[in-house]
């Protein structure tokens, strides 16, 4: 007989950030299993308390905030300019991204009223800024934003209703340098996040052109380039390249965390540690 | 005859961050005024372009983000622990703050559905964390959050729909040290923000107890202390002190900016500079 954890046990162990190995243990009898659960839970609770104590005494900033600061430093160092834009955006700007009723993302948008919603991505705001900046600044225009985006997600292991995106963009670079640019940005962000052994996957799409995804077990980021079919909605004609990363996913990949909830904005977790311990 | 700017002229000069003196100029004739407008506009546009260029070449981070980083550094240095909590909160947690239908703030809340809204303040989430942390950590518990809050505001010179709050709190300090604590925090935050000549105003309220406001022309921050009538809704029994500041207002006070829109999250302004120039 090979018994697995009960649903309730497994849920609790996941909350406590048990490793894959701990979650996949099997047992010979109910008694064995329940004894093991008590042991593992105690072990994980003790680890959690220790981690929380170190957080209080030494780190004092959530890893998500620290990662944000490091990315800001690395990117401004390379000449990218940070921007911060509204999280409340218009239905019209979503439509310019082709996100209308029939788009899969549309049903995931949080609406505030008929005309306003919470941004599900950073791109529409960056397009808007591009249009002014390309008139005011010499090319290439290098801007990035790090900020909260919102999607009604299933709240699975990789999804959050509120998550933190980084979008790095360069507008007005030569077309033949875009692919290298994407590789360089992926490398810069992975180095800064402390992630090694990731994979780059190039995909071609009739609609969206070439994209470059960064994978480590799951998708960490996705790069795109233009000229792009959406550009004309924003009055953009120059070539560009841009890369989006989910910061919570970068932390998951680095820490080997099993659930993204523990790392994002939360009232149940503090810096990865479950608080009902 | 003493002519003022036309409404349209005044609006444009405000957008361009004209000083109080520039906004209050008076003229002898329409011709004088219109000539002066062209002059002032050209002057302000040139200043704006210069500022935008320095922003690109040197600063590279919005002042709002820089101020946030400085506050984080100053507070963690003093032993305060940073937290980041959800911007989407429950109707129930608003009710625990006594913000129900009959509360003036209620009509300013952005609702996502019947049960969820965008936080109009940081306090409910910090109360929630206090309750767990007071069980897990020795007292005093020192935590702070810096993050976006949302209110349907008239969008006047001092109000934004999305603004950045800092709440610094200490739970479990001696009652006789709370007032000094508030003064110390006000001083720390004002020093960090580079604001001198501010005033502290103590108010007493039957409902909310003593509060300490920081004023420089307008309200920059407001401190409160407990035991407090709301504490029992959250199961909190220890004395506490807490201070909330609006980061955009701190920047307005320091820079002498005439409109808060230019300093907050925006698509029309970049770091205080209007983009339609």
UniProtKB/TrEMBL annotation, chains A, B:
Q: Boundaries of each Aminoacyl-transfer RNA synthetases class-II family profile domain copy? A: 66-253
- Entry superkingdom: Bacteria
**InterPro entries, A to Z:** aa-tRNA-synth_II, aa-tRNA-synth_II/BPL/LPL, Phenylalanyl-tRNA_Synthase, Pyrrolysyl-tRNA_ligase_C
UniProt entry keywords in alphabetical sequence: Aminoacyl-tRNA synthetase, ATP-binding, Ligase, Nucleotide-binding, Protein biosynthesis
Q: What Pfam families would the database entry show?
A: tRNA-synt_2d
Entry keyword annotation includes Cell division: no
Q: What is the lineage of its organism?
A: Bacteria, Bacillati, Bacillota, Clostridia, Eubacteriales
GO molecular function (one): tRNA binding
What's an example Gene Ontology biological process for this entry?
Answer: translation
Q: What is this protein called?
A: Pyrrolysine--tRNA(Pyl) ligase
């Amino acid at each position: 007989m090979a018994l697995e954890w009960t649903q309730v046990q497994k849920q609790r162990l996941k909350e406590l950030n048990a490793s894959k190995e701990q979650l996949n243990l099997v047992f010979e009898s109910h008694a064995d299993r329940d004894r093991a659960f008590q042991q593992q839970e105690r072990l994980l609770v003790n680890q959690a308390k220790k981690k929380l104590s170190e957080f209080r005494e030494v780190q004092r900033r959530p890893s998500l905030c620290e990662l944000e600061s490091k990315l800001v430093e690395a990117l401004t160092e390379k000449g990218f300019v940070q921007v911060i834009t509204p999280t409340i955006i218009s239905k019209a700007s979503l439509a310019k991204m082709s996100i209308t009723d029939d788009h899969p993302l549309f049903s995931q948008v949080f609406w505030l009223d008929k005309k306003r919603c919470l941004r599900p991505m950073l791109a529409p705001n960056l397009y808007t800024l591009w249009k002014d900046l390309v008139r005011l600044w010499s090319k290439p225009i290098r801007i990035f934003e790090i900020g909260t985006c919102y999607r009604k997600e299933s709240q699975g292991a990789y999804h959050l209703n509120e998550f933190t995106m980084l979008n790095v963009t360069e507008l007005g670079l030569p077309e033949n340098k875009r692919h290298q640019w994407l590789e360089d940005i992926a490398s810069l962000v992975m180095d800064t996040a402390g992630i090694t052994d990731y994979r780059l996957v190039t995909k071609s799409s009739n609609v969206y052109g070439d994209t470059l995804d960064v994978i480590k077990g799951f998708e960490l980021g996705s790069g795109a380039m233009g000229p792009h079919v959406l550009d004309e909605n924003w009055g953009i004609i120059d070539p560009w390249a841009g890369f989006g990363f989910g910061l919570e996913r970068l932390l998951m990949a680095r820490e080997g965390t099993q659930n993204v909830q523990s790392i994002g904005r939360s009232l149940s977790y503090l810096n990865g540690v479950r608080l009902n311990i």
